[in-house]
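Sequence in, structure out.
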Amino acid sequence: MSSKSVIPAPRAFETVERLRKNIERTIRGKTEAVDKVIICLLAGGHILIEDLPGLGKTTLAYCLARSIDCSFSRIQFTSDMLPSDIIGVSIYDEREREFTFKRGPIFANIVLADEINRTTPKTQSSLLEVMGRAKISVDGQTYTVPPPFMVIATQNPVDYEGTFPLPESQMDRFLMRMEMGYPDFKNELDILKDGHLHYDHLVATPVVSKNDIVELQTYVREVYVEDTVLEYIVKLVAATREKVEFRSGVSPRGTLSLKAAAQARALAQGRAFVIPDDVSLLVLPVFGHRLVLQKPMSDPMEERRSVEGLLQQIVEATPEPS
């Protein structure tokens, strides 16, 4: 599958469009947010949604799972939660005289990690292996999470009382970070007319199979990236390392993440090759959460805006390949 001609880009575009339109029947007026989640899914990554409560983060995750006919699990993180509450636990079976592993809620295709910063670092770190490898090691045994697998984590960027900020190693596991934002007047009026308060009341019909998603994820890795575009990605990364305002630049994992996200966006757009726009439009969501200011601010929202402003300067100052 080394030639770009073997990738059925038009069929991939039709599949993505069908998925996008189905989700947007419920998530109204949030095309950009829906696109980012789909891109993240196709790239085989995980996404962190930072926004205020009640803006549809849970509904978006649920609609995605239902639209691709996948299992969905919601984990409400709390300060007293243990790693075994997420991963599972081995229970001794007296009849069989052996330990049996009881799988935790992480064993689902789409996992909503709600308010992930409300649990302790020990519990947060239990997600590292499964997010990185889609595998879990318990008592010397390795268990694989069924594909496709995606963690959609949420946290409130304003309310930091009683929270445990995610360490950089955990943040780096997320392919992208985004926010939902408020709906506009017309879409909020439509939401009001629908009157659904809980995602359990929603009826989402599957329009894409999980096998379709796994197939698209395979194609994403084969989307062609020209050398000049690869050099463009490296120049953007190097600029973050040279920016004195940042404590440190983007890691090689971030470099690979931007490439994967750009390939996923290209395929979602119906192309078997990456163009510079695929890269530049994803710099903020892919790099924003991986960077910390040299002089941190007390207001997390203000710090996010500062980081994104600096990233925008880098994008504007780095010439795109022609």
